[in-house]
Amino acid sequence: MMTSEPDSLPRNGWTTTSADMPAAVGGTPLIRLSRASDATGCDIFGKAEFMNPGGSVKDRAALAIIEDAEKRGVLKPGGTIVEGTAGNTGIGITLVANARGYKSVIVMPETQSQEKIDFLRMIGADLRLVPAKPYRDQGNYVHVSRRLSEENGWLWANQFDNVANREGHRLTTGPEIWEQMGGKVDAFTCACGTGGTLAGIGFGLNDAAEAAGVARPKIVLADPEGSGLYGWVKSGDLSVSGSSITEGIGQSRVTANLEGAIIDDAERIADPEALEQIYSLLIHEGLSVGGSSGINVAAAIRVARTLGPGHRIATILCDGGARYQSKLFNPEFLRSKDLPVPAWLDR
Ligand code: PMP
């Protein structure tokens, strides 16, 4: 089997060589966020998923889904993978496909950042932009990608309902965080698109805590405005209100990846609170991250305040800020959304 060799090698970053690009996915640093930590008296750590080869947490899902399809024999050499994505999964799939000799067809709502669109084209994806439509509409990017798969006999990655996605996080990201924190993790916060990251890491941390015979960390879902998941966790109500400029997160249904996930609580974070964290991480800590990372860190700070000083909290730095230069770091765009413009951008 073509995956057996890279699979058998450890994926633990700079202390080893990697057999190829897919083997270099994961093994990301866990960085203490000093301002968030100092403000709360806790230790808050960000898993630097923007350091993956494709620049986001979704490299892990792309690789896990492709390796699962290879193992099940449903992805043949030279085959084509089609997926509906906010961009990052498409980037991960395309790069892993390039490395393994597959073709990729990426369906994406046209509202996503120009940087992600340009990058997907640059790396050779067959990109199909579609108008942004709600999931109940058959023109929604997820349904378009499913139909393309059915019509052409291509593999549909189906990241929302393919639990190979969360399984990848259960087997890699969760154990990495546990090990990096020396088995002392009080809480974990994370926003959801598919839910694969939150659910998989939650399971992985739970597995590790069980094996160590200690209490598992508290798992808290971080949700932007315009998503139904906060209401779902709090009261079983999936209805949606408000909106967010963040990309790749927010959900109005319980995906297969979210079914049965360990979730203890939720925090809803509005864009200004997330932006405050994004700008602070950049200007005070040298960490350039995108919108969902801001939501995650803001939620980690809230959880730290609830738990009180002395606790250890992990969260995810999902992708890098350069992917959103034309939005999160563009004064005209921010003003058009009535959002504050940070001083150093406003010159
Ligand atoms: N942040 C960003 C930037 C993303 O692109 C995504 C995935 N769409 C997520 C967070 C959410 O990850 P997941 O799909 O695992 O819930």
Automatic annotation (TrEMBL):
Residues 1-21 are annotated as: Disordered. One of its GO terms (biological process) is cysteine biosynthetic process from serine. Its cofactor is pyridoxal 5'-phosphate. GO terms for molecular function: transferase activity, transferring alkyl or aryl (other than methyl) groups. The keyword Iron does not apply. InterPro entries: Cys_Synth/Cystath_Beta-Synth, P-phosphate_BS, TrpB-like_PALP, TrpB-like_PALP_sf. This is Cysteine synthase A. Residues 24-319 form the Tryptophan synthase beta chain-like PALP domain. Keywords: Amino-acid biosynthesis, Pyridoxal phosphate, Transferase, Transit peptide.
